[in-house]
Amino acid sequence: MVxxxxxxxxxxxxxxxxxxxxxxxxIGQGRFTEDxxxxxxxxxxxxxIDPVIELDYLALRLDGAVFDEIGEPCVTAPDPVAxxxxxxxxxxxxxxxxxxxxxxxxxxxxxxxxxxxxxxxxTAELKDFLGEIDTPAEAGLFALLNGHQIACNERDEAGFxxxxxxxxxxxxxxxxxxxxxHVLLVRSNGRFEILKSVTKSLASPGCST
Length: 209
What we know:
There is one protein chain. The chain has 209 residues and is an alpha+beta fold. The chain has helices at residues 80-88, 123-130, 136-145, and strands spanning 2-4, 20-22, 57-62, 65-71, 96-97, 106-113, 116-120, 149-150, 158-161, 164-171, 180-187, 192-201. The strands form two sheets. Strands 1, 3, 4, 5, 6 and 7 form a six-stranded antiparallel sheet that branches. Strands 2, 8, 9, 10, 11 and 12 form a six-stranded antiparallel sheet that branches. The N and C termini lie far apart (42 Å).
């Protein structure tokens, strides 16, 4: 974890966008019951996590741009100006490389708490922060930061499963033959595995549960 001290001091109707998943069978919608995205297709994770450490502010950034945030930055800092400067100066690179990026892009999870400003930059730090993964949003966040792209707004994106949660993810580019959808199991201890993968096609209607 990198820290910097300031100087001195849906319900969305998914039928319109759901495509057939073909290949080794299909992925039914019934096991996915929890939204991880907004109706506009943006990630909506941080408001539903239950971390070990309480923070004033937490933000998910991609190459410095904020994708999701909760709280107010530097709200309890003794020197808010210095705190804000330290937050802006945090590194952009981390262990969390963005999936399917054409160039080297990185997610960072940055925070403020009183005079403390920092970032969680490794899987080990993320595990320490989250503790046991016990909400669908934590499973989604853990999946995303470990290279799995969440497939927003094709259905609900997460659900409960024995020993953890399932997250609906995607890989590949658009609707090419390499475009796939996955059922990713994220266990409460942070281990994960792909339970099923299918190829996406626009030719036919969606799967039944």
